[in-house]
Write a structure and sequence with these properties.
Elements (H helix, E strand, L loop, with lengths): L14 H4 L14 E3 L5 E3 L8 E5 L5 H8 L2 H10 L4 E6 L11 H11 L5 E4 L4 H5 L4 E2 L2 E4 L5 E5 L18 H10 L14 E2 L5
Parallel strand pairs: 3-4, 4-5
Antiparallel strand pairs: 1-2, 3-7, 6-9, 7-8
Length: 202
């Protein structure tokens, strides 16, 4: 079967058709174009040559709160963007569902939480979420400089909403980036994501 690459706006119409092909580790990461929290277009292809992290997010989800209220997600963002990694937070909650926010509300949240992703992609139509088959918040992905998906899964190995578990957890994203930047294959390249279900409109 031929491999396809896609460049879709967040309001595109092909998300469901690409669902079965989405985001397999070891294959090219699906390309996309999406609008961020500041009204700027973000294209995955613009970051070719860099590592990219995708983080699915929902402010109201207890599992997301675990990592933000503890400061864990912000530490990851700061540590890895300082090393040249692009960090894209994605919000796929549909209007009227848990986690839906306007760009202004998201910017207020970022300031309050001292969060520093490279950008937040506003995906209320769910196109990007379906393209990557994102299941939970959080659901994490790592894309390498060649544009290949090298990690898909959970943020860590403690699938709870209890922040006290963080110090004793293996953080799969941090471990994966450390291995990849060191020229090594990722030991745990695919894990089961945990958290709240992504609140798609359909």
């Amino acid at each position: 079967m031929k491999k396809f690459r896609y460049s879709l706006a967040t309001v595109g119409v092909f998300a469901l058709a690409t669902f079965a092909l989405a985001a397999r580790v070891g294959e090219p990461a699906p390309d996309f174009t999406s609008v961020d929290n500041n009204g700027k277009q973000q294209k995955l292809s613009d970051y070719r040559g860099k590592y990219v992290v995708l983080e699915w997010h929902n402010q109201g989800c207890p599992y997301t709160k675990k990592h933000y209220e503890s400061g864990n997600m912000q530490r990851l963002q700061k540590d890895w963007t300082a090393k040249g990694v692009i960090w894209l937070t994605v919000i796929s909650s549909a209007p009227g569902t848990q986690g839906f926010v306007t760009p202004a509300q998201e910017n207020e949240y970022l300031q309050k939480m001292n969060a520093v992703p490279t950008a937040v992609l506003m995906d209320s139509g769910g196109t990007l979420g379906h393209l990557y088959a994102a299941k939970t918040t959080p659901h994490m992905y790592i894309i390498d400089p060649r544009g290949n998906l090298i990690y898909n899964g959970a943020i860590d190995d403690h699938p709870t909403s209890d922040g006290s578990d963080i110090p004793k957890s293996k953080n799969y994203v941090s471990a994966g980036l450390t291995e990849a930047l060191g020229g090594k294959p990722i030991t745990d390249a695919a894990t089961r994501p945990y958290g709240c279900s992504v609140k798609y409109k359909d």
